[in-house]
Structures are given as C-alpha cells and as structure tokens.
C-alpha cells in the first residue's frame, strides 16, 4: 500500500473515482481494480 504523506490527491471535475479498500491498488488511495485478483474481496 502506498502512503500519500500529504493526504491529498488531484481529481478532475466531472470524473468518477473509486476509493481503494483492499490496499492492493497501484494507484492508492484510488482503486485500479486490483481487488479482482483477490478471492473474497469486493470494492
């Protein structure tokens, strides 16, 4: 899991984002779909 020390992310108006809950995303704290490779983990 990456650590964003500033606690900030850049987002674009009008674009949808999903928050990562599994901790496996390469775009953490945003979801990149990595949870699909894990059994029993849902977004």
Automatic annotation (TrEMBL):
List UniProt keywords, sorted A-Z.
2Fe-2S, Iron, Iron-sulfur, Metal-binding
Gene Ontology molecular function, alphabetical: 2 iron, 2 sulfur cluster binding; metal ion binding
The keyword Iron-sulfur is assigned to this record: yes
Query: Could you tell me which Gene3D superfamilies the record lists for this protein?
Result: CDGSH iron-sulfur domain, mitoNEET-type (3.40.5.90)
Which Pfam families did the record assign?
zf-CDGSH
**Keyword flag Ion transport:** no
List residues of the Iron-binding zinc finger CDGSH type domain: 4-42
> Which is a Gene Ontology cellular component entry for this protein?
mitochondrion
**Name of the featured protein:** Iron-binding zinc finger CDGSH type domain-containing protein
- Provide the species name: marine metagenome
